[in-house]
């Protein structure tokens, strides 16, 4: 370019001035722009959490932007140092690799390592670096950006841990969406429930619940989760294979960033074993360890409950306090183990003597308490006597045959107390009295009851003698065919001609006899007497009849019964049709399954078997079908109001139809027919036979024959003289 000639024309000078001016302006503007750009860059660096760094050719830090301060790492400490001098992690090999890359002047990205802050905290950094060269192309160092990634790494770590925990935990975990449909389950869930993830995805976890337990939770559960964010409780669930298991489950709500529920997480711990242990502990707390009988605590609970029920129903209840006589002496002679064996056997025997609703408790060494609901003086006495009688059988302990007796004290609700404490106290007082009275006996708390019991005791011993002293006799009640009112049979009913009290009806002494072994003797006597009478009638020329004898359930358990009856029939040359046996419906349940053989043998023999007082028990049709029955006797209670009560009429008709149908094919007999109207209704309903005052009262044999003859056997009039003789 040519130099400027100062003698240049003024116009040129002005032009140059203008250019210079413009240039100066431009430079000012450029500087300003540069400053602005620098400020922007500075602001940027200050406002981001990232920072900018520079290193010289020996990789020593020469510069940090302010962003580093946010990591709480003071840049002053770093300046002049290399990265590996500062790091707290990475192996020498890893650093060697990094340095090799730097030595090769390579750019790098996302190189991660840790350094420690002032406070001693480790921070993870991630850096990118770019090698720098000067104008001549010589390597001058590195510059780049750094970022604190501690949080990101922690979150990542947590996620990895959470995933590992989800997979590895032994608790079953399920995750549902807000519709409560399963979206994920862990392996423990599959192990516990037996369902694979594929089988449960999309299903509501409620399908796991076993139907065995009341579902009290469900509705409040979700309400609580919504309100508190979680719910905890126990469930009984069902495995895929059908087995049930108990779980303690926590259901928690998971919210999204906006605070709305997005998922539910259920964590279930298997507590089946704990539950079983709890039940065992509960059982131990309420049972005696030796005999497994309920203990005093459980007695208290059951007694409270029974008392409340009894009071509401206006019934009676009995508490029996039992104590073995002279157990201490026996125990001293025996070893401890043998004493225990004896107690276990006593417990077992007491249990066989009581019913399902009764409670037998052991409340101390040789002390037992029986709680008998629905029990009045009568039954209390019967149970006590049954126990005394059962203790006559020795107990086989080790090689011994031990005889031991028991004393019993009886307290009755409401008579002897209105609460458990009083009743127990009074039963104990009565027990004390029983011991005073010489042991091996039972005593009522209230004296007047002892008096009544004593009277019964007298009666009982008298009855024992009455059989031997021929004070018993049989009365006969005619049984007629409804279609033509012909006498076709009779029922034999026992009477006791007491020398002082006159004729005692069976209602007063049969229960006594049933409570002891007397009932069997009485039955044997009746069987013999009826056979003898039948033979006498036959010998007198009277036509053959079927006479029914009432037997107690206990009798059928006697294995010799069939042979005995067979022997009697043979001895009196009677056909099997001469006898029929009556067994009440309520005692059917008592006879037990092993009597079926006896009943079948009777059927083979040809002796009929009638169900007495039918309609008062609870026998099932299928049970009746299994038994070899021949007749069914409709209880008096259904006949009594037949005329006035349409319900009873329906019931009677139903029983008759039942006896005839359903493969039973039984003869149906109506009991207690007192009027002609009753007779007509029963006839209309298709009933076969009837008994009752309308046709004839139970009377002595001679009177029975007289009535029988009036019915049309005048041709055997002569024979009557014979029978009465
Ligand atoms: P059961 O076997 O149901 O006998 C029928 C009872 O009803 C008899 O009472 C009889 O006298 C009575 N009776 C008959 N017809 C009528 C009537 O038209 N109206 C009314 N109101 N009653 C009538 P009994 O003889 O006092 O016998 C009562 C219960 O004693 C018998 O009931 C039976 O369970 C039992 N029993 C009687 N004799 C014996 C026996 O030898 N052995 C056994 N184990 N129990 C017997
Ligand atoms: Ca009967
Ligand atoms: Ca009856």
From TrEMBL:
CDD domains: EAL, GGDEF, PAS
Catalytic activity: 3',3'-c-di-GMP + H2O = 5'-phosphoguanylyl(3'->5')guanosine + H(+)
Annotated coiled-coil segments of the chain: none
Domain PAS: 158-204
Domain of life: Bacteria
Domain spans labelled PAC: 109-161, 231-283
Chain ranges of the GGDEF domain: 315-447
EC supergroup of this enzyme: hydrolase
Transcription found in the keyword field: no
Keywords: c-di-GMP, Nucleotidyltransferase, Transferase
Domain EAL: 456-712
GO terms classed as biological process: cellular response to nitric oxide
Enzyme Commission number(s): 3.1.4.52
SMART domains reported in the protein's UniProt record: EAL, GGDEF, PAC, PAS
PROSITE patterns the record matches: EAL, GGDEF, PAC, PAS
Cofactor(s) needed for function: Mg(2+)
Gene Ontology MF annotations: cyclic-guanylate-specific phosphodiesterase activity; nucleotidyltransferase activity
Record-given protein name: cyclic-guanylate-specific phosphodiesterase
Native organism taxonomy: Bacteria, Pseudomonadati, Pseudomonadota, Gammaproteobacteria, Candidatus Competibacteraceae
């Amino acid at each position: 370019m040519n130099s400027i000639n100062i003698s240049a024309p003024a116009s040129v000078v002005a032009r140059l001035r203008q250019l210079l001016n413009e240039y100066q302006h431009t430079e000012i503007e450029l500087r300003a722009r540069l400053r602005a750009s620098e400020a922007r860059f500075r602001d940027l660096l200050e406002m981001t959490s990232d920072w900018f760094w520079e290193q010289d050719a020996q990789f020593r830090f020469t510069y940090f932007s302010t962003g580093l301060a946010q990591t709480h790492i003071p840049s002053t400490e770093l300046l002049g140092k290399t990265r590996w001098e500062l790091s707290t992690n990475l192996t020498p090999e890893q650093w060697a690799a990094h340095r090799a890359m730097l030595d090769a002047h390579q750019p790098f990205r996302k190189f991660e390592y840790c350094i420690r802050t002032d406070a001693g905290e480790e921070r993870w950094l991630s850096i990118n670096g770019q090698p720098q060269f000067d104008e001549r192309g010589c390597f001058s160092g590195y510059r780049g950006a750094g970022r604190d990634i501690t949080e990101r790494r922690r979150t990542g770590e947590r996620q990895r841990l959470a995933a590992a925990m989800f997979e590895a935990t032994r608790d079953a975990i399920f995750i549902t969406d807000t519709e409560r449909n399963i979206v994920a389950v862990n392996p423990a869930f599959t192990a516990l429930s037996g369902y694979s993830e594929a089988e449960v995805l999309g299903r509501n976890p409620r399908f796991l619940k076993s139907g065995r337990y009341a579902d009290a939770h469900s509705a409040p559960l979700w309400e609580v989760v919504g309100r508190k964010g979680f719910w905890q409780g126990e469930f009984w669930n069902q495995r895929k294979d059908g087995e049930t298991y108990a779980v303690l489950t926590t259901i928690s709500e998971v919210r999204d960033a906006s605070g709305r529920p997005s998922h539910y997480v259920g964590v279930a711990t298997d507590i089946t074993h704990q539950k079983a242990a709890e039940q065992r502990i509960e059982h131990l707390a309420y049972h005696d360890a030796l005999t497994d009988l309920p203990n005093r605590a459980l007695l208290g609970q059951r007694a409270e409950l029974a008392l409340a029920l009894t009071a509401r129903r206006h019934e009676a209840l009995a508490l029996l306090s039992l104590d073995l006589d002279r157990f201490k002496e026996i125990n001293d002679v025996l070893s401890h183990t043998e004493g225990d064996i004896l107690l276990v056997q006593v417990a077992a025997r007491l249990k066989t003597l009581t019913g399902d609703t009764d409670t037998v408790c052991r409340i101390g060494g040789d002390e037992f308490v029986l709680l008998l609901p629905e029990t009045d003086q009568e039954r209390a006495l019967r149970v006590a006597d049954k126990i005394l009688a059962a203790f006559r059988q020795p107990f086989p302990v080790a090689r011994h045959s031990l005889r031991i007796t028991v004393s019993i004290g009886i307290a009755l609700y409401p008579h002897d107390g209105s609460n458990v404490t009083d009743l127990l106290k009074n039963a104990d007082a009565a027990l004390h009295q029983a011991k005073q009275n010489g042991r091996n006996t039972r005593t009522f708390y209230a004296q007047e009851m002892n008096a009544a019991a004593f009277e019964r005791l007298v009666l009982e011993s008298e009855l024992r003698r009455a059989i031997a002293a021929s004070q018993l006799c049989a009365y006969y009640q005619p049984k007629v065919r409804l279609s033509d009112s012909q006498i076709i049979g009779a029922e034999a009913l026992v009477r006791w001609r007491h020398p002082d009290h006159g004729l005692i009806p069976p209602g007063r002494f049969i229960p006594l006899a049933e409570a002891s072994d007397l009932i069997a003797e009485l039955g044997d006597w009746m069987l013999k007497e009826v056979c003898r009478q039948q033979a006498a009638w036959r010998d007198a020329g009277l036509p053959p009849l079927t006479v029914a004898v009432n037997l107690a359930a206990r009798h059928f358990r006697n294995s010799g019964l069939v042979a005995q009856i067979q022997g009697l029939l043979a001895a009196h040359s009677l056909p099997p049709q001469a006898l029929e046996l009556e067994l009440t419906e309520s005692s059917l349940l008592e006879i037990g399954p092993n009597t079926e053989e006896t009943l079948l043998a009777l059927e083979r023999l040809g002796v009929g078997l009638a169900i007495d007082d039918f309609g008062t028990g609870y026998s099932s049709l299928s049970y009746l079908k299994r038994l070899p029955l021949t007749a069914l006797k409709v209880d008096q209670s259904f006949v009594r109001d037949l005329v006035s009560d349409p319900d009873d009429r329906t019931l009677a008709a139903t029983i008759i139809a039942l006896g005839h149908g359903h493969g039973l094919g039984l003869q149906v007999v109506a009991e207690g027919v007192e009027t002609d109207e009753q007779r007509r209704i029963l006839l209309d309903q298709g009933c076969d036979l009837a008994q009752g005052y309308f046709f004839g009262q139970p009377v002595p044999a001679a009177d029975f024959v007289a009535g029988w003859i009036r019915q049309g056997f005048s041709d055997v009039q002569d024979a009557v003289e014979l029978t009465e003789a």
